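Now for our target.
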Amino acid sequence: MDSRTRLLLPIALIVATLAVSTSSIFIRFAQAGGAPSLVIAALRVTFATLMIAPVALTRHMDEIKRFTRTEFLLGVASGIFLAAHFATWITSLEYTSVASSVVFVGTGPLWVALLSPMLLKEHISRTTIIGLGLAVIGGIIIGLADACTWNHGLVCPALNDILKGRAMWGNFLALAGAWAVTGYLIIGRKLRAETSLVPYIFLVYGMCAIALILFLFATGNTPFGYDAKTYGWIFLLAAIPQLIGHSTYNWALKYLTAAMVAVTVLGEPIGSATLAYFLLNETPSLMTIFGGVFILIGIFLSSKGSS
């Protein structure tokens, strides 16, 4: 890694986190227009693929043609993992609370850290593990912030309520979403060492879009019939969180361990809470602020351990 890249990395990760943090804002506006979450996810990746297609097909066609069979299949697998992440996590919200879903899907960095040494031969330092643990704890605190109340002490839902019936199925789907994003990041780390950014994301986003569209129609949804404003919010979702946010994380995978990128993604709730404060006049709770502090300390320690 040259000095210029080393200087750009922290700036790029901050930009990526801020970009991804707009996701919940745009999704909320698109949902207000009547679009189901699965439709939003499918169109988000489809629009992103269409926006990157002219650059990929005119400037990077030679590299795309040089993809080996293994590289192509890994890229397809990465796209399917990303589609599975969106589909399982979004569907989980129909069965369990947002808080529980966020807690389970937020375990993704832990699975990345567990699998990276075996699949990528990446050493995870003790400092990185501590930082990752703190960041995940911060994410859990933020996830519980919506479900817990303060009434002469902290009152949270009983564990039995989280682990039964429909909630249990929803929590499993959210956990499956964490496993899927783990596959997406680990494959990305492996492929980005050998391929440039635009051909990689064109293949991955394209495969993800195809998989989500097929799932969309299989579940009886349709991408048609919404007003122009709703499609406008989805377009912004594709341009900012997907093309800028996700693509910058994929760029960073060439230089940072998968575990480091995964723990950085946990900064999204901090950015979302900040944007909601300024754009939606939503004041973050003390638990959200407390969890955000844990995440920031965790990201700082993880970055030190990875340097």
